[in-house]
Amino acid sequence: MHLTAADKTLISKVEAYLNDQKGLTANFLQVAPDGSTRTGKAWLERPGKMRFEYDPPDPQLLVAGFGVLVYHDPDLGQTTNIPLGSTPLGILLAKHVDLTSGNVAVTAIERQPGEDDITLIRRDKPAAGSLTLVFGTDPLELRQWVVTDAQGKQTRVSLYDIKPGGPYPDSLFEYFGNSPIPNKG
Question: Do 70 and 51 meet the contact criterion of CB atoms below 8 Å apart?
Fold first, then answer.
């Protein structure tokens, strides 16, 4: 994608904003590819840490920490471990967010009234999917992201009641077998 001067200015603002975010808590609404919705609470702490705790009765848990993304679904009795660096969310949780060099590439920028969307891929794994970051513009604030997987299926996560925070205890970003650490706040 050819970046215009306006695109480069937007990307610089977004990088500065993301690199300034050390931690946050938020409530979230997740819309799955089939249209089903789930809600819960999220904690993000850069670099590399995230916890998505779904509201009851949903027992699933998504935890990123220490280089690994762990997804636990007790209903299926399955726990999936994925290297964080191979996921689109790894871009957002990087120690230093750089959207135009290295292994990350901007593939699209969409501007709408009050909203800017930036779509990203990993250069070394473009077929693995993309991450679209959706920002409110006044003030600049991350409001949503859309993960498009290798099959083209989209999962949309909207954040609300966003509050800066952290550092959080490391235990919040750990997962032990079948006993996820309880919500610590």
Answer: no
> Residues 83-100: pLDDT tens digits?
888 777 788 888 899 998
Q: Which domains does the chain have, with CATH numbers?
A: 5-166 (2.50.20.10)
| DSSP character at residue 95 | S
Residue in the structure block whose two tokens are 């498009």: 148
Nearest to 70 by CA among 55, 94, 45, 53: 53
* pLDDT tens column, 70-85: 988 888 888 888 888 8
Bridge partner list, 82: 69
DSSP annotation string for 38-72: EEEEEEEETTTEEEEEEPTT---EEEEETTEEEEE
State the Cα–Cα distance between residues 102 and 122, nearest whole angstrom. Answer: 9
User: Are 134 and 145 spatial neighbours (Cβ–Cβ below 8 Å)?
Assistant: yes
45-67 pLDDT tens trace: 999 999 999 999 888 888 998 88
pTM: 0.85
Say if residues 60 and 73 touch (Cβ distance below 8 Å): yes
